[in-house]
Specification:
This protein has 5 helices and no strands. With 152 residues, the chain is mainly α.
C-alpha cells in the first residue's frame, strides 16, 4: 500500500498505470462502459431520446477513457499538474454523465416492464446494473484523482 500512496503526487506512465490508484480503474471503466454500450445497442431503442443519451454517454466515455489510458500509458502527460487537474475534471464529468444516463435508463426500463419483449427487458436490466457500476467506478476515480491533484 505504501507504493500506492507514495505515488499520489506523480502521474504514472507505462505499466505504472496498472499498479496505482486511481489509474488501475481504467480497465474496469472500459469493461463496464463497453458492456453498457453493447447491451443498449442490442435492445429495441424505444424511446429514442433517453436511450440515445445512454448510447452517447457510453460511447463517449468508452472512447475518451481509452484515449486517456493510452496518453497515460505512453507518458504523454509529462507528469504535469495540469494533467492531474484534467484527469479530475474528465472523470467528474464522466461520473455525472453516467449518473444521468443510469437514471434515464432505469426509468425507461421500469416503464417497459409491462408489454415489452422480455429479452429486451432483461438486456435493459443488465445495462442498468452495469451503468450504475460504471458510475461508481467513475466516482471513485474522481475522488482519488482529486486527492492526487491536490497533492501535486
Amino acid at each position: 500500500m505504501a507504493s500506492n500512496t507514495a505515488t499520489l503526487g506523480n502521474l504514472p506512465s507505462g505499466c505504472g498505470i496498472c499498479t496505482t490508484i486511481p489509474d488501475i480503474l481504467y480497465v474496469p471503466e472500459l469493461i463496464f462502459g463497453g458492456l453498457v454500450w453493447i447491451l443498449v445497442a442490442c435492445t429495441l431503442v424505444v424511446p429514442q431520446n433517453p436511450q440515445g443519451w445512454v448510447m452517447f454517454v457510453s460511447v463517449f466515455c468508452f472512447v475518451m477513457t481509452f484515449i486517456w489510458l493510452v496518453v497515460f500509458a505512453c507518458g504523454g502527460h509529462q507528469n504535469k499538474s495540469s494533467w492531474a487537474a484534467a484527469d479530475f475534471i474528465y472523470h467528474g464529468v464522466a461520473a455525472f454523465f453516467y449518473l444521468s444516463a443510469s437514471v434515464a435508463l432505469a426509468k425507461v426500463t421500469l416503464d417497459m416492464k409491462d408489454g415489452s419483449v422480455f429479452k429486451n427487458y432483461q438486456l435493459d436490466i443488465s445495462a442498468v446494473v452495469f451503468s450504475y457500476m460504471a458510475t461508481v467506478l467513475y466516482v471513485i476515480h474522481t475522488i482519488f484523482s482529486a486527492i492526487r491533484w491536490k497533492s501535486f
